[in-house]
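TL;DR need structure tokens for one chain.
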Amino acid sequence: MPRSSAFRLWSAVQCRALLVGTVLTGHSRTGVRSQTGSPGSGRSGRDMTAPEPPSAPEPTPAPEPSPTPSTATAPPSAAAAATASGRAEPGAPYTDPTLGIPVTTSWRGEPRNRLVTIGDSLTQGFQSCAAFQTELSYPAIIAHELGWAEHFRHPSFDGCGGLPLNLEMLLRDIEDHCGPAIDWWDTPSALFRARRFMDKVEDYWERGAGCAPVSNTAINHNLAVFGWDLRDALDKSADVCRKMIGTPSDDLVLQVVGNPGERAALRTLPTRPPAAGALTQVTAAAELGEQTGGSRHGEATEDGEREADPDHGIETLIVFLGANNALSSVVELKVVWSGEGYDDLRTKARFTVWRPEHFASELRQLADAVGRIRARHVIWCTVPHVTIAPIARGVHGKAERGSRYFPYYTRPWIADSAFDPECDPHLTGEQARAVDEAIDQYNDAMAEVVRGARRGGRDWYLLDAAGLLDRLACRRYYEDEEARPRWWTPYPLPRELAGLDPVPNSRFLLSDGDRRSDGGLFSLDGVHPTTVAYGILAQELIEVMRRAGVEFRTPYGGQPRTGPVRVNFTRLMRRDTLINRPPANVTSGLHAIGWADEALDVLARALRFGRRGK
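>> reply
TL;DR here they are.
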């Protein structure tokens, strides 16, 4: 339902009455004016927040892509080059994970660690503003299908709904006490319940059982930490994170866990023995890679215990990083291009999008470090186009016929008729295009890394996660035939998901009070996948692993699986509460989430991962 000015005013009055003398965290987001236009766009705007540092020059925008020539007019050499690069045509996704470069391999035995992952929130299993059920992350789903789930080590964040704030549990708590809808007369009660829930979560992770050190000495196989970018993966260790965590304070206003990413790292990265506290994501994976030969966890077949690989400690290493080098642009609805200090752990917090040359510099360092890890197969995942995520919804129709972009991108609960670019937070279409073009250059740099490795004889692969999301983007392509490039085809959902009513899509998840009425691929934060969507990503990675020759075994019994390996989506659907039982107060107007964000600043604070302030 459209926003109500009267409702917002009444909410503000009630909030201030409940917190006399205190400035609310959730100042009305609709009062924030937008940042200036994207580089080279020629647009101007007003910004009530701190402007981009003048010392950071505007980057040269990527040139506007020319129309893709038809097969009849395209030079044969260009078509051949596109095929050899792993693309069906210039500008299309990388469909061949080998990039058309064969590699001759010969393996002996089986590595002790069959699956290791380096990444951020997408790999950790984050959804609805929290790392919670990490046993349903895409790496854990793959481990289940490998028949290796009982050996796959991953951190746990079960307390108080996870870290930093479980939006689904928050809405369910409000629903239990205030009913399925939040009307203006419910505002004081709903605000009280929300504050109480957030205070409980903050206490648990900052001062309660959640801050207790993890005693396990074994290195986790899922090393991902939410909110981390390329530099974090290279430089942050448990020792570094301890120093970055300040003294916790029970703040009445900023009721969100402080330094959540660093706290998550202390449960993810090794901390014991003391010397292990210096290990980063990358060097921790390298330690697992050194575990060659020796016992295979007692795994046995009818022929006896399997022989261990004498050369590789890791069978498959997945690297999925880079989204956080651009994601803040849509979370904060502000484009601040990287400048001096982009490679500094503290200074980089002020940037929301990395310039392609800065990203490429970080990527080269990461690739060099990954190249020293003793892993048989390495799969690099490209960076998805963050502007597709429904946290930033396009309004006022497409900018022009056949365009991928809308004139403005704002919060999903702000209706087209109510959106006002003079006062509502937003990105312009030109800014969205600039962010996408930067990500395209990130991914081209990543493809070049894989291409160079394969030419050098390494068994590295590229999974185009950006292309996967593009094929699932309903508002960008599926619902607009004129905007579809020649290469585009809709992604064929697994039959279990295709049989649901409604069929899951990339819109913001909605409920009609009794059942899901729209969305289903993104969780309630509008950024991270639902459990079944993580299953789709797992399925794509399984296909690459099968191509690499990885043997999958039955989840129970460990017998080799023959034929196609399909993710058990029936199992995932049973566990996916957003698919089978979403909160009733996620109404058709996003009333509850819009209220939570405007009154409590929930999304920005939880998804900012402590980038600024608390």
